[in-house]
């Protein structure tokens, strides 16, 4: 099994290094690592934020562990040469269509949430967001109307098979969790959403062990704040998922703890090909200072073990070690603590049972 490691810019290399120490400690004999440049560092070395060799390394792997991209010295470059383009390029070139974002409030960290502690404490959910369709990729344009007013439009559209494949990802994720899936749409007004709902219901027949419910997106936004503990897995389209996943992140609060996965269609020997990254960026303000919290990247590694390598037990071991460190008040600056990157890595390593 091969993992491409794209550490990238800013705090990317620091947080990725700690995740790799955790991986090393798991002593998985079959795992091989391939390192490649991405983002600003790749631009400076090779003239492009996503060099062909990096893309090839990602393609030839079972999974990609990604740090972060972003480099203030690249701000003046043409758009296609900016570091952020690398992650967009990877998503499209690798056919990553499902974005998974867990949101969980760890015991003792209820105060980091924007919500009341007793409400926040119950948060343990996963948002599965479709990434390749919806208004972002529909026909779009602007024009001038006869009376001189300007008009703009973006078509929202989903094809049946696009909904089907994201639904399968979500049902499978629910099977590995509490077995509850809530599909979020706006089927009372949108045709796209009616199709979405119909297809999700059809797919549900293959997952009798998962309890499916439906919710309109406006209500879901409200429920995420009112009673987020009710959700296990949420599946939704690109636009609604974009908004709800950021909302869920703020319900958790701590940017240094949030992991993500973007899964593709290709299967690996033991799972699904995917790219795994913390949701935070390159954080140039603290880069190189040893202050970044590596837990989000370590938790992203856990997702990699689960979804791409089929190593559920190892994934849980890593997640338990992070939870144990947090329970022992090993907190980074993002959580009001004083522990640095390396100290947090050490603390997680010590707790890997
Ligand atoms: P980018 O442009 O790459 O997204 P950014 O400056 O927007 O970079 P973010 O990563 O989005 O940075 O972070 C926003 C704030 O949160 C920054 O002040 C950053 O220092 C802080 N932060 C981000 N990640 C971490 C982390 N892992 N540990 C501690 N603080 C973090
Ligand atoms: Mg940012």
UniProtKB/TrEMBL annotation:
Residues at which NAD(+) binds: 281-293
Cofactor: Mg(2+); Mn(2+)
InterPro entries noted in UniProt: IsoCit/isopropylmalate_DH_CS, IsoPropMal-DH-like_dom, Isopropylmalate_DH
Note describing how the cofactor binds: Binds 1 Mg(2+) or Mn(2+) ion per subunit.
Highest rank taxon of the organism: Bacteria
Pathway entry: Amino-acid biosynthesis; L-leucine biosynthesis; L-leucine from 3-methyl-2-oxobutanoate: step 3/4
UniProt domain Isopropylmalate dehydrogenase-like: residue ranges: 2-348
A Pfam family this chain is assigned to: Iso_dh
Any one GO molecular function term: 3-isopropylmalate dehydrogenase activity
The EC number(s) this enzyme carries: 1.1.1.85
Binding site for substrate: 91, 101, 129, 218
Keyword field: Amino-acid biosynthesis, Branched-chain amino acid biosynthesis, Cytoplasm, Leucine biosynthesis, Magnesium, Manganese, Metal-binding, NAD, Oxidoreductase
Main location: cytoplasm
Localization terms from the record: Cytoplasm
Catalytic activity, as annotated: (2R,3S)-3-isopropylmalate + NAD(+) = 4-methyl-2-oxopentanoate + CO2 + NADH
Positions bearing the site annotation: Important for catalysis: 136, 186
Enzyme class, broadest EC rank: oxidoreductase
Binding site for Mg(2+): 218, 242, 246
Family membership: Belongs to the isocitrate and isopropylmalate dehydrogenases family. LeuB type 1 subfamily.
SUBUNIT field: Homodimer.
Function: Catalyzes the oxidation of 3-carboxy-2-hydroxy-4-methylpentanoate (3-isopropylmalate) to 3-carboxy-4-methyl-2-oxopentanoate. The product decarboxylates to 4-methyl-2 oxopentanoate.
Listed name of the protein: 3-isopropylmalate dehydrogenase
Lineage of source species: Bacteria, Pseudomonadati, Pseudomonadota, Alphaproteobacteria, Sphingomonadales
């Amino acid at each position: 099994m091969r993992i491409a490691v794209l550490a990238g810019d800013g705090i990317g290399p620091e947080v990725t290094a700690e995740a790799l120490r955790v991986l090393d400690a798991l002593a998985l004999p079959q795992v091989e690592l391939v390192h490649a440049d991405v983002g600003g560092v790749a631009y400076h070395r090779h003239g492009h934020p996503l060099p062909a060799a990096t893309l090839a390394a990602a393609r030839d792997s079972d999974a990609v562990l990604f740090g972060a991209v972003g480099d203030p010295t690249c701000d003046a470059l043409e758009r296609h040469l900016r570091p952020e383009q690398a992650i967009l390029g990877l998503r499209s070139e690798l056919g990553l269509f499902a974005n998974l974002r867990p949101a969980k409030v760890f015991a003792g960290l209820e105060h980091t949430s924007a919500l009341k502690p007793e409400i926040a404490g119950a948060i343990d959910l996963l948002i599965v967001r479709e990434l390749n369709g919806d208004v972002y990729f529909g026909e779009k344009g602007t024009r001038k109307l006869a009376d001189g007013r300007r008009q703009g439009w973006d078509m929202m559209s989903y094809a049946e098979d696009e909904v089907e494949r994201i639904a399968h990802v979500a049902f499978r994720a629910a099977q590995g969790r509490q077995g509850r899936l809530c599909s979020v749409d706006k089927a009372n007004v949108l045709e796209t959403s009616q199709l979405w709902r119909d297809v999700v219901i059809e797919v549900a027949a293959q997952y009798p062990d998962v309890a499916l419910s439906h919710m309109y997106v406006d209500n879901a936004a409200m429920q995420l704040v009112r009673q987020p503990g009710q959700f296990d897995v949420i599946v939704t389209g690109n636009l609604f998922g974009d908004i709800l996943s950021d909302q869920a992140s703020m319900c958790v609060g701590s940017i240094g703890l949030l992991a993500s996965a973007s899964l593709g269609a290709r299967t690996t020997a033991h799972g699904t090909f995917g790219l795994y990254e913390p949701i935070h960026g390159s954080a140039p303000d603290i880069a190189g200072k040893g202050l970044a919290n590596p837990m989000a990247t370590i938790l992203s590694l856990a997702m990699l073990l689960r979804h791409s390598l089929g190593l559920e037990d190892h994934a849980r071991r890593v997640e338990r070690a992070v939870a144990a460190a947090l329970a022992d008040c090993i907190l980074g600056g993002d959580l009001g603590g004083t522990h640095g990157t390396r100290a947090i890595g050490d603390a997680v390593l010590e707790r890997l049972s």
